[in-house]
Amino acid sequence: MPTTDTLHARLASIGQDHLLRFAGTLKPAARAALLAQIESLPLAQVPDLVERYVRHSPEFPVPDRLGPAPYFPVDSASPRRPWDHLEARARGEELLGAGKVACFTVAGGQGTRLGFEGPKGCFPAGAVTGKPLFAIFAEGVQAAERRSRRTVPWYIMTSPLNHEATKAFFAANHYFGLDPAQVMMFPQGVMPSFEMGTGRMLLAAPGEVATNPDGHGGSISALAVSGALDDMHARGIEHISYFQVDNPLVRVIDPVFIGLHASGAGTSAEMSSKMIAKTGPGEKVGVFCISDARIMVIEYSDLPRHLAEERWEDGALKFIAGSPAIHLISVRFAAKLAGDPAFALPFHRAEKKVPYIDDHGRLVEPAKPNAVKLERFVFDAIPLCRGSIVLETRREDEFGPIKNATGVDSAESCRAMQTARAARWLEAAGVRVPRRADGTPDCTLEISPLTATSPEELDQARLPRAIEPGAKLAL
Fold first, then answer.
1. Long-range pairs for 427-432 at CB < 8 Å and ≥24 separation?
2. What DSSP character marks residue 53?
3. What are phi and psi of 396, to 5 degrees?
4. How do strand 271-277 and strand 390-392 relate by DSSP bridges?
5. Does some domain include residue 58?
6. Cβ(410)–Cβ(247) under 8 Å?
7. Is the pTM of the predicted complex or chain greater than 0.90?
8. Full pLDDT tens readout for the chain, 475 residues
9. CA 223, CA 331: separation in Å to the nearest integer?
10. Is 312 in contact with 358 (CB distance < 8 Å)?
11. CA distance 410 to 403
């Protein structure tokens, strides 16, 4: 632990010694905590970060000759780009059976926007049962283990704010039937919040630096710092199934996707992605594009309007491949991203309102943005890949995020999607599902991943012949 004088000298050399302005007024434990927090920050990088991202606002220009990214269509028999579904599945199941695949959930969010106290992964998401998101994912892990007869390790990136609450939730729920030894949790990193104009790091309290999570792109460095990558190497893991905590429809382990990624249409990919067809030119999702033979994600706000609206002769959008943030990442590539400066992901700047302690020790609640927050995006790793593939998935089958309290991407819309998906699967198995005049199911349905993760896995002998109107049924 550095002394106050030693750290003061370091901070003074980078113009940040104001962080210790109130250190002498703190009790020993609080002062020690402040020194430890400051020491944990990337102090050597601060001058460069301030110059590049605070005093200036770097642009991320859209590359020249930008085209829509090629992708494998959800229908493997499509004449546009046929591919061998059975071969991909067999390769994926082979890797699962060899214990080469792990799950990785980015779960740093809180349920504040949902009116829910606690980690978002604890939010009740099951359409009928109200199972929390974490329970649904745990069932997906167990389903994969039953098929492969191998343990599937599960890594969960929390945040400093919800880490202890997440650990306590898993313990209280007995890890949802999983072996605690296969579940590893660790908090993501943080970045200091910088005052606009001056570049000074802000204080959230006299003994605390104002910080913000370093973004989902920080998940890669968190894997390394936490020891998760070392744990993966020790277990023989080669591929990481990455998904975010707010999407209960996601297939946490998809053998077809794994197999296609591992074969990479002839060469093993380093990072691969699923895509969903955009609902229209203005949908607020990142878009898969290609430039100079490199696949990349362009944020919806950065894609020029004339490209976003461009269409093929049949009227379909050209730039149609939206990102649902579902990826496969090779462990070797993740280690390279975390350890090789040449592969370091760039920071993105956001201007936000951040409460802070002024030079007189008073708390200031700003009325307008006063600070710069820096974060990294995981999709910025894609153009750094030696190989990358994109696989289409049906939105209605695998993308029903819970982000908002009401309306689009809410718990209500997600329950409707769970029901609609279950209804399609059951009807394909010969079950009669009641429907309203508008075609929507007149019931509420939920299918656990332990029952099926695709319609082909449904056991018809265990299904009802028909569902009553208004029924609530969990299978």
1. 428/455, 428/458, 429/455, 429/458, 429/460, 429/463, 430/460, 430/463, 430/465, 431/463, 431/464, 431/465, 431/466, 431/467, 432/465, 432/466, 432/467
2. I
3. -70, -15
4. parallel
5. no
6. no
7. yes
8. 567 888 999 999 999 999 999 999 999 999 999 999 999 999 999 999 999 999 988 877 888 889 999 999 999 999 989 999 999 999 999 999 999 999 999 999 888 888 888 999 999 999 999 999 999 999 999 999 999 999 999 999 999 989 999 999 999 999 999 999 999 999 999 999 999 989 999 999 999 999 999 999 999 999 999 999 999 999 999 999 999 999 999 999 999 999 999 985 445 789 999 999 999 999 999 999 999 999 999 999 889 999 999 999 999 999 999 999 999 999 999 999 999 988 889 999 999 999 999 999 999 999 999 999 999 999 999 999 988 999 999 999 999 999 998 998 999 999 999 999 999 999 999 999 999 999 999 999 999 999 999 999 999 889 999 999 999 999 9
9. 10
10. no
11. 6
Tokens of 442: 């007149």
Whether residues 461 and 398 share a domain: the answer is no
Question: Considering 378, 403, 428, which residue would you say is the last residue of a domain?
Answer: 403
Report yes or no on 217 lying in a domain.
yes
Residue 329 phi/psi, 5° resolution? -130, 130
**280 & 328 share domain:** yes
- Is the Cβ–Cβ distance between 124 and 75 less than 8 Å? no
Between CA 359 and CA 365, with CA 364 as vertex, the angle to 5 degrees is: 160
Contact between 410 and 431 (Cβ < 8 Å): no
Position 419: which residue type?
T
C-alpha to C-alpha distance for 347 and 156, rounded to whole angstroms: 22
Question: What CA–CA distance (Å, rounded) separates 82 from 301?
Answer: 32
Task: Estimate to the nearest angstrom the gap between the alpha carbon of 350 and the chain centroid.
Answer: 19
**What residues contact 94, with CB distance under 8 A and at least 6 apart?**
259
Nearest CA among 414, 417, 473 for reference residue 445: 473
Domain that holds residue 111: 67-403
The sign of the dihedral angle between the CA atoms of 432, 433, 435, 440 is negative
If asked whether residues 284 and 227 sit together in one domain, one would say yes
* Three-state DSSP state, 65: coil
The two tokens of residue 433 are: 């599902």
Tokens representing residue 237 in the block: 């893991």
* Structure-derived torsion over alpha carbons of residues 171, 175, 178, 184, reported in degrees to the nearest 10: -70
Nearest to 290 by CA among 131, 65, 39, 31: 65
Dihedral over alpha carbons 256, 262, 264, 269 (to 10 degrees) = 130
Residue 418 and residue 394 in one domain:
no
CA-closest candidate to residue 445, choices 409, 421, 428, 411: 421
